Amino acid sequence: MIRNLYDRTIALAHHPRALWALAGVSFLESSVFPIPPDLLMIPMILAARDKAFLIATVALVSSVLGGLLGYAIGAFAFDTIGQPILASLGKAHAMEEFNQRFNDLGFWAVLTAGLTPFPYKVITIMSGWTGMPLGTFIATSILARAGRFFLVAWLLHAFGPPIRDFIERRLGLVLTAFVIALIGGFLLVKAL
């Protein structure tokens, strides 16, 4: 089953609308969607290594724009939209206490969430809710997401065939490691 899904994703990476799909996933992941864009970005780069940096750029721009939506949700619709999203991640009880701590660490919180499997949408919503300066949020989001997406693009562009071979031979292991990292990010959210 996993092999079929992987093969299908690789085949879809050549589809004319693949970049639009990546843009949509990257945008939504930054504010409301639980699946990271890496799941689409990595197979796309493996299928078309010559487009690695274009793919990373689409993910970056879409992610930062989606982050602005998350920021707006936190700033203008926290009670109706932001609170339920954060509550679904187990963070509803600690919002007030977290407010001051978050602003003290704002730059580092956005940078860390943007670079790691930590759910970026939590940080985008919290940035708006706590009133983080918009300029700081945008600059840090660009820095973090560019670091994450362009590092992946560079690694896959530079070492594509061996990495692709490793992924294809050990697909179950790679998927398990990714899921563990994703769950770890959600557990980290619950611990904060």
Automatic annotation (TrEMBL):
The keyword Protease does not apply. Keywords: Membrane, Transmembrane, Transmembrane helix. Pfam families: VTT_dom. One of its GO terms (cellular component) is plasma membrane. Residues 39-155 form the VTT domain. The chain crosses the membrane at residues 20-40, 52-78, 105-123, 135-159, 171-189. InterPro entries: DedA_domain, VTT_dom. This is Cytochrome B561. It comes from Marinibacterium profundimaris.
